[in-house]
């Protein structure tokens, strides 16, 4: 469904030279330099023009919501009803992600991918694939048609933002039980034991943590014969919101948009997207390392160095929103910082 081209590396030497000639010691801006180079690789066309500028236009935060059958089996501190309650909070402007999006100038859209009960709020986009997934330790989460439909919904969503002039999307999520789904996806994609992938989510106690590991071990054994390709991993273990985040990554990468990945759940979607189309990795910016146990290994598998490490474990896209000033700083220093020659400063390279 998607055709993702790798970024153009023909300008790499000129981009790096421009960064090196800024009035600073080599590498003195640390991760902002590699970030600026990545953005330039995505946005600059051949032939290289030293005056061409980078830009972040109409950035959008897309928060995908869905419910999970496994949430009814004691793996979370909250009932599934909280998913819809928080979605209505997002739509009304009262959550952390709303505060940060207003501060950072992000356009927020909330998408119902398949909550148990639909939201009647007019600001919630209806891309429902069902009323929550099946419990993954008992059945497949969804059928393959739901994965296909989820990708189609995501493509339409990203196309709409692209047509409005957006060239960067950030991904967030809401779904009680979705750390269970993400941990199962991580175990399947990285071929790891469940114990290395499962964390405490929103803060479950020892008894619930042990149960969560037990149920996910059952899930992995139940679906073992089917989870050898990324699409079947989504169908067997995924959430409706994770499916649509995966599709959004691929749709945006196809359009050469930057994609900011939030925490553990969004990174699970990134694992699947990159497995389907390895070139999608070129377009991904990893916002932060979350406090969820498995996240560092996920990031390592994707060769990702997150911009922030704040001990976050909220989801919603909060870490992705908070990373936007860093992304804008990389763009601005590339565009506006003087070179040694222009500033009349002795070159310290």
Word description of this protein:
The protein has about 350 residues and is an alpha/beta fold. It has two domains: about 10-55 and about 330-345, Orthogonal Bundle (5,6-Dimethylbenzimidazole Phosphoribosyltransferase, Chain: A, domain 1); about 60-325, 3-Layer(aba) Sandwich (Rossmann fold). The protein is built from 13 helices and six strands. It has helices at about 10-20, 30-45, 80-90, 95-105, 145-165, 180-190, 205-220, 230-235, 240-255, 265-275, 295-300, 320-335, 340-345; strands at about 60-65, 105-115, 125, 170-175, 260, 285. Strands 3-2-1-4-5-6 form a six-stranded parallel β-sheet, sandwiched between helices. It is globular, with a radius of gyration of 20 Å.
Cα end-to-end separation:
47 Å
| Tally of domains | 2
User: What is the CATH top level name of the largest domain?
Assistant: Alpha Beta
The CATH architecture name of the largest domain reads 3-Layer(aba) Sandwich
* Number of H/I helices: 13
Shape: globular
Output the keywords.
single chain, alpha/beta, 5,6-Dimethylbenzimidazole Phosphoribosyltransferase, Chain: A, domain 1, 2 domains, six-stranded parallel sheet, 9% strand, globular
Q: What's the quick description here?
A:
By secondary structure, this protein is α/β, with parallel strands linked by helices.
Which helices and strands occur, and which strands form pairs?
Blueprint: H1 12-20, H2 31-43, E1 60-66, H3 81-92, H4 96-104, E2 107-114, E3 124-126, H5 144-163, E4 168-174, H6 178-190, H7 206-222, H8 230-237, H9 240-254, E5 258-261, H10 264-276, E6 284-286, H11 295-301, H12 318-336, H13 340-343
Parallel strand pairs: 1-2, 1-4, 2-3, 4-5, 5-6
């Amino acid at each position: 469904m998607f055709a993702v081209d790798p970024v153009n590396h023909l300008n790499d030497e000129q981009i790096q030279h421009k960064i090196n000639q800024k009035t600073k010691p080599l590498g003195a801006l640390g991760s902002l330099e590699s970030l600026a180079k990545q953005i330039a690789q995505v946005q600059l066309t051949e032939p290289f023009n030293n005056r061409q500028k980078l830009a972040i236009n109409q950035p959008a935060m897309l928060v995908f919501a869905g419910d999970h059958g496994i949430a009814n089996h004691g793996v979370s501190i909250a009932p599934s009803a909280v998913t819809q309650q928080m979605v209505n909070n997002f739509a009304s402007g009262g959550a952390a992600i709303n505060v940060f999006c207003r501060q950072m100038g992000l356009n927020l859209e909330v998408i119902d991918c398949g909550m148990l009960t639909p939201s009647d709020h007019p600001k919630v986009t209806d891309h429902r694939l069902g009323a929550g997934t099946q419990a993954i330790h008992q059945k497949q989460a969804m059928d393959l048609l739901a994965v296909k439909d989820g990708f189609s919904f995501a493509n339409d969503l990203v196309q709409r933002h692209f047509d409005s002039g957006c060239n960067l999307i950030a991904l967030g999520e809401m779904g009680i039980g979705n750390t269970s789904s993400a941990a199962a996806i991580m175990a399947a994609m990285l071929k790891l034991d469940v114990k290395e992938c499962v964390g405490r989510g929103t803060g479950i106690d020892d008894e619930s943590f042990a149960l969560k590991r037990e149920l996910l071990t059952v899930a992995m054994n139940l679906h073992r014969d089917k989870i050898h390709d990324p699409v079947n991993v989504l169908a067997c273990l995924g959430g409706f919101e994770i499916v649509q985040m995966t599709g959004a990554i691929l749709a945006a990468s196809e359009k050469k948009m930057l994609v900011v990945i939030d925490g553990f759940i969004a990174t699970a979607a990134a694992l699947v997207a990159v497995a389907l189309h390895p070139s999608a990795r070129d377009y991904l910016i990893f916002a932060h390392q979350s406090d969820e146990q498995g996240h560092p290994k996920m990031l390592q598998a994707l060769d990702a160095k997150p911009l922030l490490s704040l001990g976050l474990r909220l989801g919603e896209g909060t870490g992705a929103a908070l990373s936007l000033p860093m992304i804008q700083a990389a763009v601005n220093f590339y565009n506006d910082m003087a070179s040694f020659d222009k500033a009349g400063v002795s070159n310290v390279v």
